[in-house]
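Box 3.1 A note on notation
Throughout this textbook, protein chains are presented in two layers. The first layer is the amino acid sequence; the second is a token string describing backbone geometry. Keep the layers aligned when reading.
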Amino acid sequence: MFENVIKNDVTAAVLERRTIREYTPEMLTDAQLDTVMAAAMMAPSGRNSQPCHVRFIKNSDILKEMQIDFKNIVGWDTPVHTRSDKNPFYHNAPVFAAIFAEGASYMDAGIMVENICIAAKGLGLGTCIVASVGALFEDADKGAKWRRAIDIPEGYRFLIGVAIGNPDEKPEQKPRDESHYKVIE
């Protein structure tokens, strides 16, 4: 369908990115993390409102404790995300970016997530966009605990997150339905 795609580093990162659910334990370098954070910060937002607050959590003890609280809320046998039978919500990635905003700035958060994912791919990293952990932050008790622990302003809510790390798998592209894309002349 798309016979004339221009190839460059940016289009390659967009077209070759895959969801990664298996990661090596290797931590991101400071330069990698700074680059991904800069990409998040430079994401456009409606009227340049910059509503999102992002926490890049790289403390494995915090992530493990968050996973325990999350599973205690949703149930240990509940299949809340792909591979939830063997992976925590952050898929054992060494970094989890949690995006919060006041109100419903889902579009701004989505744009930011894409910037994070494409920048990470350009650095040779993998990503998995995660929404299921929202149940943790919406819980009256545990949500308040974790928002305080990671310094989220009062009244802000979790919108979406991204697991980030060095991929330990190379999944194939899933099929796309070309009938969803048309040029109107």
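The mean pLDDT is 95. Strands lie at 52-57, 95-102, 126-130, 156-165.
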